[in-house]
Each structure stands twice: as C-alpha cells, then as structure tokens.
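Consider what follows.

. . .
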Amino acid sequence: MRKFMAMQILSVVLAGLSFVAAAQVPEAKPAPSAADVQRMQWFKDAKLGIFIHWGIYAVDGIDESWSFFNGKIGYPDYMKQLHGFTAAHYDPQAWADLIKRSGARYAVLTSRHHDGVALWNSAHGINVVKDTPAGRDLIGPFVRALRKDDLKVGLYYSLADWSSPDYDVFTRKEKRYTNDPVRWQRFVSYYQGQLRELSQRYRPDLFWFDGDWEHNAKEWQANKTRDMLRSDNPQVILNARLPENGDYATPEQGPPIARPSDRYWELCLTTNDSWGYQQRDRNFKTPTQVIGLFVDTIGMGGNLLLDIGARADGTFPQEQVDILDALGQWIHRYPQAVYGTDAGVPKDYYNGPSTLSADQRTLYLFVNGKPNGPVLVKGLINKVVDARLLGGNTSLKTQLIGNSVNIPGLLYIDTAGQALDQHMSVIALQLDSPLKLYKKPLDAAAGS
C-alpha cells in the first residue's frame, strides 16, 4: 500500500512538474510567409546599419527630448534651440559616403523625435523648414544621397509628440488631459498624416518607430498605420515599436547574452553614451570594442544599428567618423564572414562569436586578440576540409583529439606564428558538408 501510494504521489508530482515546465515554454511564434521572408531578405543580409540622431537638441548638446521631459531644462528653454539649428555645413552626400565606407548597407535618420520637431516641410506641427534657420528639407537630399550609394533608406519616427497640443502627455509629471477621445483622435490623425507625407514623399525601405510605450496598439490605431504604409509600399519593413505590427525586435544599448527568440532583430547602440550630439560626452568606444560588439551581434543572427549624432551645423565629431572608418576597413577585409551569413554555433561549441555561410559549409570563427594557445571547437560532427585565417593563403594546423564513433572530439586550431588582425581575426573552417553539431541525448546518464 505504501509503495502504491508513493507511486501515486510521485505521479502527481511529475505531472505537476510537467505542467510547470510546459507553462514556462514560450509560445512558438508563427513562421513567416514566403513573401515575408523575401521582403526581409535584404535586412537579414545587411548586418550593419547606421543610426543618425539629428535635431535641435544638438544646439546645446543636451538629451534629445528627454531633457525637458525629465525636468532637467524648462520646455521654453529647450525650444529656444530652434533658433540655433542652422545645418550650415550639412553635406548629405558626405554623410552617405561615410555610411558606405563603414560597411553599412542601410541608414536610419531621425525624421522627428519626441520633441515634435520634424526635419522636413510637414504640413503638420513644428518643422525645421519654417521654424529654424536651416530653412530647408533635410530628409530629401539625404534619401537621394543614400540611394545614389545603393544604400537602403530608413526613417525614424516617434509616435509620441510631447509638443503637440493634442497629445495627452507633456512631461513626466504633467499631462494635458485624460480621457478625451475627440482630442486623441485629432492627434492620431496628425501623426498618421505625417507618416503619410514621409511614406509618399520619400518612400523609405524601413520605418523605425519609437515612443510607443505611453499607449497600446489599439489606441495608436497601429493596424491602420501599418495598412496605410503597406498600401504605399508593400515591401516596407517596420520595427516592433509599432505595437503588435513590427517585423523585427530592437533591443538597445545592452547586447543580448543569448540569442533572442525573434527571427529578425537589431541591436541599436551608441558610439559613446549619447544618441544625439553632446560635446561633453567623450566616452567613445574604441574600434576594437565596436567590432567586438558587431561580431557578437551578427554571431547571434542579428543586425547592429550603430548610432552617431550630428552637430547642429550638420557635421560629426571626428571620433565617430574614425570609428565608422575603422569598422568599414575591418568589414571590407572579411566581407564573406559578414554579409549574407547566418548565426554561428552556440558558445558551448566555440567560446566566441561565429557566423555560418549561407550554404552552411563554412564556419567563421572570430578571434579576439592573440589566443593563449590553440583555438578550440567542440561538438563538430563534420570533417574539416581546410582551416585558414581570412586574408592569408596558408592553411592552419589542426588537431582532433578524443574523436569516437558516437561523440566527436575536440578540434584544436593552431594560430601560433600567424599575422593576426589588430582588432579581430577570422578563421574560416571549410566543412565537408552542411554544418552538423553533436547534441547530447536528453536521456544520457549523468555518470558511469
């Protein structure tokens, strides 16, 4: 009886554990349609985009929009920056050429931040054409320059507008109104009207939304917005900050520790600590740090959207130019390990970032610094046909230890005496067949 009761109790416990385990498994996301896969292909293959924050906040070099929202500066003083926004040295072709040199395949420009100041001659709200000394459309010339350089066009747009008299939120401590459907609808019509202008005037390849957190998808009428933009351009890509309607996720600043579950994702990251130009922020990342963050991102199947901030006159700090040039020089040395690749192997197999060629037959290992001994790859079922440093013609010595019929051995790759890259070296492993990794059976014994 006791044995029977114990077995019953055990069955109940196991059933409960199974239920808990099932409850913790995230719901599988539906697979994209063939049309969606095709629409997203250029984005997946691009790997790198350049984010540009440009607005009146560059005049005083203060936080874009947030400085007045959080009470660091009064709203009237923030808006006085309109009078100093000149764009006097704005050279959109030089911008596009810098982006091209960086190795990026697309760029995203802030067409309008949360402060409501539009960079084009909008029929709605505040804009730099009629309200600043710049006095001209700043988006159109940039779009044309990007396309001349065969780069994809992205436009950032904040759904929120803390300057609009019809938007409910003004600052962190102050709201204009609550529960006023008529006024809210006026705001929705306003923001959708601006998006229609951007869509029809510039036909961007991508819309990068922001400012969505203060309202839900229904309140934003996000479905209507999506349908409107897709009616203008069925191929347009939308980020996930248009609630419940985005094509890809956008984590920011902190690189993910593990590969995100989203099929498509993009890490947006600043070159120093600020999105817009701030002369006091001198904490620039080094080229080696940026390259490391880049390969870590693409190694997990994502893109990097690297941010720079333009001054009010349209120029960039030299440090940001130097970072983009160094990144581009590195990418142009190893393009096959970057563009059109898939995520590499998990770090249980190789303790570093890696990517995989589209045919799955070449595994690229990114090697930071000078290894203290051979580079190690575990669990590789394939036979390695060749191993070499990209940029060189000499095969690297390899040693396979502990290989058996059932469990692949440890592959050691010797880089001693080789000329390694000052930022990040790349080892190409040519495989005899599409990549196959050993996976420990779930019922394997813990010991023998």
